[in-house]
Amino acid sequence: MKFAVIGAGNGGQAMAAHLSMMGFDVALYNRSPEKIESIRKNGCIILEGEVEGRGEPFLTSDMREAIEGADVIMVTVPASGHRDIAYAMAPYLEDGQVVALNPGRTGGALEFGNIFRQLGVTADVVIGEAETLIYACREVRPCVVRINSVKNVVYFATIPSYSVWPALEKINMAYPQFVPAKNVLETSLNNIGAVFHPTPTLLNAGRIETDADGFEYYLEGISPSVAAVLEKIDMERLRVARAFGITVPSAINWMYETYGVKGGNLYEAIQNAKGYKGIKAPTTLNTRYIFEDVPNSLVPIASLGEEADAETPTIKAVIQLASSMHGVDYWENGRNVRRLGLDGLTRDEILSYAEGNYVEERSAVL
């Protein structure tokens, strides 16, 4: 078994080091060679916390070198970089490979599939996405990553949906926590980052921009009032899922499944999550919690909601607020149904398309 890990950020370093420690052949790719050189000079990636040890993956900034011969390609870059990565790997894909997005956010596998189709990729590959990154982790200093927790369950789906079993047969050799979801709409709409990331960041904007000492993102930044807004967003996410006949857990139930924590409400559950302790808030509003999660999580949820007549007023308000703060039209530039090639499809056709059964050619906007 050979793994390729694409992206040497927090999650990519944690995954590559952990896979190496488990004895797998693993290549770690990063587009920027400076990051790779820093790790190479250090000689290894050091893991602290729930997983401790030293990992020594093969390091490269050459995509072809990274994925050549890989059984599983684990994409760990932020969703804002998915399009560039899809373009970069398309010429070098090989039959039988699994391309797994960790996570896909919302619509990630659909976006990869559209790009591969438009580029005329002929390799027989399976595209899949995890609902979330298996690690709660942060790079605490160069080449040292602290893993606060490893999730107990991570749902995973593929396009076509029936390919999930052969894909998991490979992935489960390293990660038995990965379990099958119904299809990529389920993993996309089970995107808890859409609930937990953009809104607390925006509602703590003043503190982020003025508090030089920083603060704990989850335990301090999500107050009872902020948590109340998150519960509204979560209800709208569940409404869209129901409109497509998809069953996904609420955020509070997801926290119990993932971290084993309970609470009378979402605020209490978050406060009881040991895995969130020590995770600091962003130091700037130019953070992936906005530029990744708004266009690649909230926009597709709301856009799918429009196609299925499921209202998402709170989510749309957050999208508008983020667009105003950043001066970017996230609704137009994000993963709306037009950019995913789903516009004009009925609810049932979108479901069939997500499962890999809808054969009519779609012209996605690249």
Overall description:
- This protein is globular.
- Strand 6 (72-75), helix 4 and strand 7 form a beta-alpha-beta unit.
- Helices cover 43% and strands 16% of the residues.
- The strands form 2 sheets. Strands 5-2-1-6-7-8-11-12 form an 8-stranded mixed β-sheet, with helices on both faces.
- The two termini are 33 Å apart.
- It is of the alpha/beta class.
CA radius of gyration is: 19 Å
Tally of alpha and pi helices: 18
**Low-confidence sequence ranges:** none
Mean pLDDT: 93
Distance between the termini: 33 Å
The largest sheet, given as strand count, sense and whether it forms a barrel, is:
8 strands, mixed
Helix content: 40-55%
